[in-house]
Design goal:
Blueprint: H1 3-29, H2 35-45, H3 48-76, H4 84-98, H5 106-112, H6 120-152, H7 158-178, H8 183-189, H9 192-195, H10 198-201, H11 209-236, H12 243-259, H13 264-279, H14 286-314
Helix pairs in contact: 1-13, 1-14, 2-14, 3-4, 3-6, 3-11, 4-5, 4-14, 5-6, 6-7, 6-11, 6-12, 11-12, 11-14, 12-13, 13-14
Length: 322
């Protein structure tokens, strides 16, 4: 592939990503039947105090993705040293590709695009370690919230107890796997078809328990940040809820959303329905709940995705040149 062809293909891929991103934005915003109602409640409900809640929630977007950047930067140190700025650009690219791929798998590819020296597959493996830490944080805190929700609303029966038992066993298994990653290459030695991937997963086995706990702490901190964002936006749209009950509902919502496979182009509907179910125990303001969900999605995913698109337009895609 000569240089001219490489550039042409690179810009073709970027253009395709840009078109798909615009399609997602249109689908999520302009094709919603209730967008007029949501916009009306957005403009009518926002007093000076409400705007302050929204502003703080927007400022926390930087904290949210800043924590993720810090975590990913430290994860990558095993194979490549990145500045915070370089890592942040990679995170934004990941958000862009995650927006229109099933279960956001494009996030892994988007992040490693900007790496200069590291093996891309090894980088994906290390990124998966960070994703596992986030999943454990989301799952454990969400499970706690769901348990409190069931206790507060007398949802206690055999099926609920069995569900909690299965969830706790799954959480213990995930924690055991997370803190014993060094077993992965050993497992590969017993299965010939797994031996080939040992080279790619080896860096994941070099983290100390102290480092893994640190990643888990950063993931938990991110969870607290976006739970607080949710609470702020509920207050902004006139939903009066105390911190304790609000966080119980929010963590329950996040737990269920984590369990549902999704793609960003349709997940707003899923998120909205889950939020309406749980928040229905606290408020009848359905439009306020939908406005909260829509605004949270917009500031936490849509805005960073647009930033990632700008980064992608300025980088050279890793195409082989002959």
């Amino acid at each position: 592939m000569n240089l001219g062809t490489k550039k042409l293909i690179s810009w073709g891929i970027k253009f395709a990503i840009f078109v798909v991103l615009l399609t997602v934005i249109y689908h999520q915003i302009f094709s919603r039947k209730d967008i007029g109602d949501i916009w009306a409640i957005f403009t009518n409900a926002l007093s000076y105090q409400s705007w302050s809640y929204v502003l703080v929630a927007i400022l926390l977007v930087g904290v949210n993705w800043g924590l993720e950047t810090w975590k990913w930067q430290q994860l990558m140190r095993k194979i490549e040293i990145l500045s915070f700025k370089e890592a942040f650009k990679a995170i934004l690219c990941g958000v862009t590709l995650a927006l229109f791929t099933p279960n956001r798998v494009g996030e892994y590819g988007g992040r490693v695009l900007l790496l200069q020296k590291a093996d891309k597959i090894q980088a994906v493996a290390l990124t998966l370690v960070g994703s596992l830490s986030q999943m454990i944080a989301n799952f454990s805190l969400g499970l706690l919230g769901l348990i409190l929700f069931c206790l507060l609303n007398n949802y206690l029966n055999i099926s609920i107890y069995l569900t909690f038992l299965i969830a706790i066993v799954a959480l213990i298994a995930a924690l055991f796997t997370y803190f014993h990653l060094e077993w992965l290459p050993k497992l590969g030695q017993h299965f010939s078809y797994l031996k080939k991937i040992n080279y790619y997963i080896h860096p994941t086995t070099t983290y100390t328990h102290s480092e893994l706990r640190h990643f888990l702490f950063l993931s938990s901190a991110r969870y607290v940040v976006f739970a607080f964002q949710y609470l702020l936006l509920l207050w902004a749209f006139g939903i009066e809820v105390n911190i304790f009950k609000g966080l119980v509902m929010i963590t329950s919502i996040y737990f269920v959303q984590t369990m549902i496979p999704s793609i960003a182009i349709v997940e707003m509907g899923v998120r909205g329905n889950v939020a309406l179910f749980f928040m229905g125990y606290l408020t009848s303001n359905d439009l306020g709940v939908l406005a909260t969900t829509f605004t949270l999605w917009s500031i936490n995913l849509l805005l960073p995705a647009l930033g990632g698109m700008l980064v992608l337009l300025r980088v050279d895609l890793p195409l082989k040149q002959s």
